[in-house]
Amino acid sequence: MRRVRGNDYRVLQPPERFTPELRVSVIIPAYGAQDKLDLVLQGLARQTYPAELTEIIVVDNGSLPPLRLPAGVDARLIRCELPGRASARNAGLADATGEVIHWLDSDVVLTPGAIEAHMRWHHTAPYLSVTGYIRFTEVEPPAVLPDDLEAAFEPAEPHAWLVGLVERTDGLTANSPRPFSLHVGGATSVSARLVEAAGPMDDELILGQDTEMGYRLAQAGAVFVPEPQARAYHLGPTMRMRHQQRIDRVSQAFVADRIPAYQWLRTHPYRQWKVPNVTAVLDGTAGYEAVRAAVDALLAGTVADLSVVLVGPWDKLDRDRRAPLQDPDLDLVLVQGHYEHESRVRLAAEEEVHPSVPFVLRLPPGWVPGEDSVSRLLNVARADGAGLVNVLLEESTEGIVAARLERVSAFARARLVARPDEPLDDAVDDVSAVRWVIGEKYGFTREPAELLGRRAAYQARTRAAAEAARLAGETERLRGQVAKWRDEAARWRKSTVELRREVGTLRRQVHAATRARRGMRAIVAGTVKRALRRKPR
């Protein structure tokens, strides 16, 4: 199986001709607008992909009067009374049997070759999310779908946001940080295996369900492919096109909690989120002082968007109330008592990391990160999309001790493509990159760090701000002094030039006077000589 590095799907090169084998389930959530749904179903009946491999599920999301299937349409109609497209899509998903799930809105008419264009990719690799190109038409929907869709629905506007995203990122192949944004529910197909791994749509979200699910698909290892040959017409503008600012206001209030990749929505320096950006996993049995030093350093670091999982037999502890100092599990009891009410620390019998967390830090016992260590490791990972950053802590004849910052999506992709008995890190290196750094240079030590409380940190920031202001004022003063010196120097240069000119004039005058004096001497000498040569009479 070909391995895609990052999101550079170009290595897959799907063939133009292929033997259809995979079954696709087209899920259409619908609420009212029977006339548009009829056109959408007519468009599906014209698809070039085999009908026997195409399953169509229409989900009536509480329409009054109820929706119906036109005569002769090979589809299933189910009803979902729970409002919302996410709920309707989940109802259709629960009823689907295909190896590929194709989301389709009830006002999007596919051109005849659209599903075939999608399925060409899915026959090439089992971990893809493919999105077609939608054009938005303002044409009044006809009663019957015409044969020539272009003639009927043009002029139409392209999906400007999608086209712009693809163009800015060289088709999403140029190490795009958020290729999952391509997952739009109106025209996207996804491997059912990936959907099963990512889970259904989040029906608690008011808006933004498509993007949030796209993010979870990325976490499950998905590669996102834009397919221009999978074309469709949207009958009328979308709600986002009519009310983009209002929709962004609503969706961003909810997706910020669920998508750590949207760091610009997480501007508060201290607050916690449903899904943290980093989860650190530590051995909670390593001794009270060692565990506390590492955990406290993590919680006090510059990355506040972080949680900690302490793995240990917490559910089996039986605290000795009569002789606590003789309790053989005293260190475990102390760790549990110290952190059981800390909201950013979870005590777990086994490793439990939320599947949407993008980065997992694994820190060996006895090692303490510096205040900015985690932030610097994240910068290394983001610089070139590295899936693993190894931190060399210690090296001896017995081997090496290393911390690891793992990108969850890269490891999920590696598991999909790894060969039997292949080290997972090698597969990660193929689908992303593996980097090594020296722990000492990144602030890792064996000694507990001096922690600054929030008040101390505030005071330090205040002093730093005051010092910065003082230095800025001093800089301005020195700039003024430099300007004054420059003006003075300019005056000196001007005076020097004038003095040089005066000296030159005086030199010329002296030279002229000297020449005149010499001339006079010569004249006087000649006159005297002539007078002496004259004979007296």
UniProtKB/TrEMBL annotation:
Assigned EC number: 2.4.-.-
Pfam annotation, one family: Glycos_transf_2
Domain of life: Bacteria
InterPro entries: Glyco_trans_2-like, Glycosyltransf_2, Nucleotide-diphossugar_trans
GO MF annotation list: glycosyltransferase activity
Domain Glycosyltransferase 2-like intervals: 25-137
Keywords: Glycosyltransferase, Transferase
Keyword Transferase recorded: yes
PANTHER family to which the protein is assigned, alphabetical: GLYCOSYLTRANSFERASE, SLR2126 PROTEIN
Protein name: Glycosyltransferase
Gene source species: Nonomuraea marmarensis
